Amino acid sequence: MAITVVGSVAYDSIETPAGRRERCLGGAATYFSLAASFFTEVRVIAVVGEDFGPEQEGVFHARKIDTRGIERAPGKSFFWEGSYLENLNEAKTHNTELNVFASFEPKIPEAYRDSEFLFLANIDPVLQKRVRDAMPGVKLVAGDTMNYWIKDHRAALEQVLKGLDILLINDTEARMIAANNNLLQAARAVMALGPRFLVIKHGEYGATLFHGSATKIGERTFRAPALPLEQVVDPTGAGDSFAGGFFGYLASQKELTPGGFRRAMFYGSVMGSFACERFGTERLQEITRADIDTRFDAFRELTHLD
Amino acid sequence: MAITVVGSVAYDSIETPAGRRERCLGGAATYFSLAASFFTEVRVIAVVGEDFGPEQEGVFHARKIDTRGIERAPGKSFFWEGSYLENLNEAKTHNTELNVFASFEPKIPEAYRDSEFLFLANIDPVLQKRVRDAMPGVKLVAGDTMNYWIKDHRAALEQVLKGLDILLINDTEARMIAANNNLLQAARAVMALGPRFLVIKHGEYGATLFHGSATKIGERTFRAPALPLEQVVDPTGAGDSFAGGFFGYLASQKELTPGGFRRAMFYGSVMGSFACERFGTERLQEITRADIDTRFDAFRELTHLD
Question: For the whole model, what pTM was predicted?
């Protein structure tokens, strides 16, 4: 089933212990789309500036991603500059230029309206809500957010959470939303705000899926590992790639089952691990479905008793 | 097969967000012994002061732990005071009194000499080495250490590492020994110093077993989860309890197999999770083998795809 994703398509300048890249293609919707495209049909809603050309669009088209919802606006694309020199798990932002994103008004192409899955990548919750409301027929809605919206746009964010089936956030964000440091208690508090499923990402330690009331350990909780990587070249987009693998796999299933959610967690971790292996989207552009399945098996071998 | 463990038997005063306890029974050898005692015969080498009485000894005897190697010395037992008020993952030490431990000279009872497994809990590496050398017939030797020895007693520690089959440490300690932040590279550097197997504990995120050259992911790496706990009452001794469950289970096996090591990682995590549920050794004193197996199954359910 097709996924529509709304979020940022951007340029990133990134510095890590492995080196530096200037203005590489990035943005949450970009990483999400590339990762999800290995599993299902993906349609993007975003806005870009005049600096977004055929080369960038070609990255999407090479993975058969529908870009008819990527609007061109006068000016420059969203730009982010950051580094991970001291801590590979947390970016230090040096510069953010919203540019055309500052006046983004998501428009949903007619051809996207039959999408059964919707992913609201990390953007202003007011826009997330607008897109969600404009697509009442979707079967499953997932979303992401970040500290900025949690801290200063709480009311708008809570409106979005009410309409989500699945929220994907990291430890810090979960603890911040819940104002509670205990992960299990925080998960329960976040789910009380709306999402039936909650994926909390632990960076290099994997991710946990909570569902239902999350009181009975095991049955209602699932933990996927991350892969110990030889070298984390660039963690940018790892979380969005996780979301793409996770939600893309779910969308590829005929029906949603507990086993499907578990495998989706593994595919999320797989895609997140690939994203870190080269700068920007480089690794996601070169891998094949066979690479993904080989790594999926390695994850199973990494965690399974028998 | 019987395990001999050398390490501290102590009193701890502990403060956590869940409350405070004064002078409860603690020490690495205590937690290790209690956890391992559910799987195999355990023999302790330690030194205590005149404040260690029948009540404390009864805690060991209730679990059929051999205490003939616990020496009584004039003075007070080792005492530690710490809190976890800001961060449940890291203790803040307020006071350490070595007391009788300052002049500890481990003596190995004759009855311990046929032990096939030896655990060197976190004590001065000079003493670890002495005990290890005094028991040349053991089949498998595992050990622990801490930042203090890594930082200021490097040469002595390296002598211990040479004689270890298995080292159990946490992320920070692994990175400190290797002077490398990448977990996989750090693991390889630590194993180059001696241990064939390395268990790196990630606190609330579980633990990873590295073995062989740790270059091929999956086959030579295994990751066990930790359990998301409703309330971490007191994390003191969780790492030692992990070691006890891990090593105790290995010692209970007729032969050492890759599958046995994997299950041992799970039993380690299981025992670590119990240790956190009440203050000090309280929870380890009340659980049964049936509780352990039930939780083992919950861990499998938490992580397994099928």
Answer: 0.93
